[in-house]
Amino acid sequence: MQNQSPKIAVFSTKNWVIQAFDEVNKNHSFEPSYFEARLDKKTAPLAAGHEVVCAFVNDKVDAKTLEILKTQGIKLIALRCAGFNNVDIEKAQELDIAVVRVPAYSPYAVAEHTLGLILALNRKLHKAYHRVRDGNFALDGLMGFDLHQKTIGIIGTGKIGQVFCQLIKGFGVRILAYDKYPNEELKNLGIEYVELPKLYQQCDIISLHCPLTYETYHMINEYAIVAMKPGVMIVNTSRGPLIDSNAVIEGLKKGKVGNLALDVYEEEEALFFEDLSEKVIQDDTFVRLQTFPNVLITAHQAFFTKEAVHNIAETTFANIAEFFKTGKSANQVIPVGK
What we know:
Elements: E1 7-10, H1 15-24, E2 31-34, E3 52-55, H2 63-71, E4 76-79, H3 89-94, E5 98-100, H4 107-123, H5 125-133, E6 151-155, H6 159-169, E7 174-178, H7 184-188, E8 192-193, H8 196-202, E9 205-208, H9 222-227, E10 232-236, H10 245-254, E11 257-262, H11 284-290, E12 295-297, H12 306-326
Parallel strand pairs: 1-2, 1-3, 3-4, 4-5, 6-7, 6-9, 7-8, 9-10, 10-11, 11-12
């Protein structure tokens, strides 16, 4: 179709991104340029002279950014992530800029991290580690609960949700699931699909594994929390805006939410993937969340395994190669209804 060795402007790069991309590029011979800056309307001019922009989860590929990229000659937005809620897909189509993504890289990475968060938060492993380091061997305040015979709610049973179902089932739990498109394989494993009200009312732990859409934005809100069991544990390793942070803070204050584990946060783009240890965090809501003893936060690292990072690089480059060879990609994002 076009140039088989396109120039790629890679935004939001870290050393691990460069290492993975350079390794996979040995099979492609593309021409990547690495920019540490996040992509937005201010940094978009850096893409001048390239044909492809490679973006990550917290890059802002809105209408204004896309308009600037169009003037730079960009033909393709290659997302190195599964979600595409940070891209104005309709505007991209209007400007004839294709968008591709990495729909699956390692569902095991995210599902295993989810399980790790539950175990660490429940058994206070993070607190116990620091206590022992300080020579404090008391057990007060470290009591957890058996997962065995608890009811686990899983919202979203795509590839990651399915793997998490299989992992958590080994603890001898009852699993309730919600998804607009139930998974028959999981039904055969004894997973019970229910509507959200029933899931909220009966589950001891609720884990989110759904994409961010208009329908799922702030799905965990004041009303959802009121419907939940007292002391519920909520876990989010999917997308930050699924949870209304202010609502969950109120739930924590009242004791309705007993534990909260987050690998994502709705305003994370100003925080995550950066070293801010010598700076004052300006996000008051995030700082407030950190004050609760029953909240455990990791900085969007659930995906971060060697296997997943390699698969992301491999699929990203394969998407680019396929697009410049055929003019389209199997992982292309098409606007709804098109």
